[in-house]
């Protein structure tokens, strides 16, 4: 596993003369835009600005969107800056430093599995002040996928069972942990939990999942642009 997955998450400086086709420079630029877009999303869901202001900002955002021109990636295309499976995914909605949707969660190896740290904001809200249950599921699903990669068996979720013990607080450092608990041929059993960073003993959400590694023919069909498939 590439443990530097999210080292780009906090990068905010764009080189003055980015060297094109250098992945690290591209990733820094992607992460810088992702960072600003997440700030925009956060400001958008927290603001109490007047309708006039919202209309003015809408016009500004529309003109910015028009600047993202050029070739668009095809549906199943893997970005050149990514390392799939098992490495950097710049636009992952969970870990991607370039995603306006991602917290983004930082993944590192830990205690026989993988740990993920992040803070959920107002954009991830379910009950007022707490995280959406679907966000918890998404964090755990992704991290459990990373646990499969770390165990040497990249695999896809076929079932995910969640138990919500306590609400997950917003604006609070969180820690998720996932580990493989069993492997039977292509079937991988994985467990995961979410706690706060402050209190690892109080489980907020627990998950049990079954993941299956696609056989080579299925992998080729699902991911035609994956080198080696
Ligand atoms: C190159 C590989 C890359 C993979 C990397 C992924 C990275 C993901 C990134 C992370 C993103 C985060 C994560 C995400 O978001 S992953 C996205 C959400 N998940 C999906 O989209 C997966 C959708 N499902 C499928 O495409 C297929 O089911 C796959 C391809 C996974 C397996 O299709 P296959 O045709 O092989 O199987 P099946 O579907 O007929 O049946 C499944 C059933 O069979 C059991 N079973 C099957 N085989 C074995 C076996 N050998 N030994 C023991 N048991 C086996 C299996 O447990 C299940 O049991 P049950 O239902 O009866 O209880």
Characterization of the model:
- By secondary structure, the chain is of the alpha+beta class.
- It has a domain at 106-222: Thiol Ester Dehydrase, Chain A, CATH 3.10.129.
- 28% of the residues lie in helices and 22% in strands.
- The protein has four helices and six strands, in the order ααββαββββα.
- It has helices at 23-46, 51-66, 133-150, 216-222, and strands spanning 106-110, 113-119, 156-164, 173-184, 187-196, 205-212.
- The chain has a six-stranded antiparallel beta sheet with strand order 1-2-4-5-6-3, covered by helices on one side.
- The longest helix is centred in the first third of the chain and has 24 residues, at 23-46.
- Mean pLDDT is 91; it is low at 1-19.
- Tetradecanoyl-COA binds at residues 85, 141-142, 145, 154, 156-158, 184-187, 210, 212, 214-215, 218-219.
- Residues 1-25 are annotated as: Disordered.
- Keywords: Apoptosis, Cell membrane, Cell projection, Cytoplasm, Fatty acid metabolism, Hydrolase, Lipid metabolism, Membrane, Transit peptide.
- One of its GO terms (biological process) is fatty acid metabolic process.
- Residues 1-12 have a biased composition (Polar residues).
- This is Acyl-coenzyme A thioesterase THEM4.
């Amino acid at each position: 596993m590439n443990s530097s997955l999210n080292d780009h998450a906090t990068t905010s400086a764009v080189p003055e003369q980015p060297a094109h086709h250098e992945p690290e420079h591209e990733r820094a630029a992607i992460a810088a835009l992702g960072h600003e877009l997440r700030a925009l999303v956060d400001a958008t869901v927290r603001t109490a600005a007047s309708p006039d202001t919202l209309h003015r900002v809408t016009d500004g955002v529309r003109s910015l969107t028009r600047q993202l021109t050029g070739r668009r990636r095809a549906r199943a295309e893997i970005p050149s800056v990514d390392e799939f499976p098992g490495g950097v995914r710049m636009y992952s909605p969970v870990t991607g430093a370039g995603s306006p949707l991602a917290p983004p969660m930082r993944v590192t190896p830990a205690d026989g599995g993988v740990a993920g740290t992040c803070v959920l904001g107002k954009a991830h809200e379910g009950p007022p002040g707490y995280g959406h249950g679907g966000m918890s599921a998404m964090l755990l699903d992704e991290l459990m996928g990373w646990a499969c990669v770390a165990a040497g068996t990249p695999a896809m979720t076929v079932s995910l069972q969640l138990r919500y013990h306590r609400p997950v607080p917003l604006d609070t450092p969180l820690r998720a942990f996932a580990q493989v608990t069993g492997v039977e041929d292509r079937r991988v059993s994985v467990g995961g939990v979410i706690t706060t960073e402050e209190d690892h003993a109080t489980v907020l959400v627990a998950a049990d999942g079954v993941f299956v590694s696609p056989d080579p023919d299925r992998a080729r069909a699902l991911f035609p642009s994956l080198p080696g498939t």
